[in-house]
Structure of Dynein cytoplasmic 2 light intermediate chain 1:
Amino acid sequence: MPSETLWEIAKAEVEERRSGGSEGDGVEIGEKSVFFIGSKNGGKTTIILRCLDRDEPPKPTLALEYTYGRRAKGHNIPKDIAHFWELGGGTSLLDLISIPITSDTLRTFSIVLVLDLSKPNDLWPTMENLLQATKLNVDKVIMKLGKKNSKAASEMRQKMWSNMQKDHPDRELIDPFPIPLVIIGSKYDIFQDFDSEKRKVICKTLRFVAHYYGASLMFTSKSEALLLKIRGVINQLAFGINKSKSICVDQNKPLFITAGLDSLSQIGSPPLPDNDIGKFHARSPMDLWKKVYEKLFPPKSINTLKDVKDPAQDPQYAESEVDEMRIQKDQELRAGIETQQCEGKKW
């Protein structure tokens, strides 16, 4: 009888660990996952590197990248592990969102949406497309999990409301995201120089979206003080460190609002003149805020897929031998096509 391969042995070990725990438990205690999505070149990699204390220049994220971090709990206690996933390409690679979201990881999974404040016209479509695609995948996994472990799925649905106090006046008016969500507005150093009215619209809109989804909202830049605050929030998601209770809703300062601490009464109504309210035909409060926002910041009609660079031309993935062979094959292909075209003309 042939000996087992290394892959078969590893697979058997994983299955044995899972069967040893409670039904449906696929996650070891002390392991959490954080998935970074958001604007292209919005600063996701920079935030991850800062959280992991890695002093290295950020490289463009081509598709879906993974790294991890460890944190010691105490002497002779196994370290906690945080899995960091990052989706590159803005909204052009939505199909890859499903890869890290599985029934084994979902109960300790968090989403960090990074939005580039310096590009307000791209902000809403980026946010909408990424959140819709992520929610769709999460809902599918929860439904799948419910068939195997109804108790775990029920606990997840209850956990959605954990950030909202039972007596909060907006409890019946919001729709929390199915897993923990943090929205980060990056490049605040550029945003702070915007016209005050534009800043007001962006701040109020993001506050409404974050509150509606039961998410935390905060702005950051290259400032060390702001990065430290963001690092604290990410560490809370990744390692379960105590959540910050601080709050700043002043539009003239970087926003910092922990989930559940804002309210619709404080946010106010969508920023538009009273005589314009009747002109907007919206199906929901979210749709109304979208229409008001896009009136001031109309989205650019661009094909996001055109923005994805060919990895074969990216210098960070250069390999001389492979590249030389690729050039040779491309030349041979072009020569073959030209020959066929010439023969076709003769006919």
Q: What stands out?
A: The chain has ten helices and eight strands.
